[in-house]
Amino acid sequence: MLVFQNQWLCLPLTHSLFSKLLPRTKHAATVLSPRLCPVWCHSVARATTLPTSPGGAEQVVDSSFDAPKVKLLKQKMELLGINLEKSCLPGKYHNLFCPKCKGGQLKERSLSFHIISDCEFAMWRCFRAQCGWAGQVSADDKELYSGVCTNANLYRQLAEESLGLEPLGPEVVAYFGERLISEKTLSRNAVRQLSNNKTVIAFTYKQNGLLVGCKYRTMEKRFWQGKGADKILYGIDDISQASEIIIVEGEIDKLSLEEAGFQNCVSVPVGAPEKVSSKDLPPIEKDTAFRYLWNCKEYLDKAVRIILATDNDPPGQALAEELARRLGRERCWRVLWPKKDEFSSFKDANEVLKYMGADALKKLVENAEPYANAN
């Protein structure tokens, strides 16, 4: 495998792929000059320093590098999930664990990472063929540049502009206003609309601050999702440090809980099952219907208390049971939605917010019962 990687990295295609990651500066030609191409080959095996001559003499890393810039770059890397080791110095290439693919089954250090010698920017690429995550950040206020290289021949950047998204217009804001969801909450959660169809709502899915997916909804409740992205929980960054979390069944319910004072809330990205499966839980790699849970496992593992606030209908109850089976019933609580009248009950968080108010919704969540007692 290593031989294949070394050969692949020396191909002309590699130069064109990495050139897309570099800013238009004098450094671009230096970093990816043909003379330095073997450095990328060598970096797959271990961290190394830049050669300064064909004879292979090492470039000495300047001990007076710009520490504030390095600190800023490392902070940006942490937002992306890249944990830099103390030995990660400018001017060297380092092999780290990729936060996207986790190194695959072999747990490889597949992420080649480099801070340019003068600390102006950092760049990285995962060399696992199934991943290919790559990008760069600058030591200034420029935006992150991140994308995916699939099978070493495609490069894609996911951004609001490329998806045709724009800030919400008055019609969509009014739609949410009728549901008692404020512009402040919509803005914090980066809810957008399609620029070519201003009645289509776009719920942006972000992880570590980066846009990784999008789910669309019309005002007539027709849903679809963008292709090519792994499914994750909506609002995942809001529970990154939470020991108590709330899981709801839809994006609007997540926004409704925020109106009641709860930001530690996420929504499942897909609909609920019709009924609880009678089969044993499948292995993680085959649990495709709940892939979003396993993609967010490191977040969910931190939670000591998980409040399930799914819809009050048979599919919603089935979803709560399937979540509890996977997350552990012993740490799950269940919100019990109150009766609306003699014949029916409130269906979900937004309906309670709309007809009973934020305080009532807050009390219902605070009074959630242990899952075993709620069934």
UniProtKB/TrEMBL annotation:
Coiled-coil residues: none
Pfam families named among the record's database cross-references: Toprim_4 (PF13662)
MF annotations from Gene Ontology: 5'-3' DNA helicase activity; DNA helicase activity; single-stranded DNA binding
SMART domains: TOPRIM
Highest rank taxon of the organism: Eukaryota
UniProt cross-references to InterPro entries, sorted A to Z: TOPRIM_DnaG/twinkle, TOPRIM_dom, Twinkle-like
Domain Toprim per the UniProt entry, residue ranges: 243-332
UniProt cross-references to CDD domains, sorted A to Z: TOPRIM_primases
Stated name of the protein: Toprim domain-containing protein
Underlying gene: LOC100814805
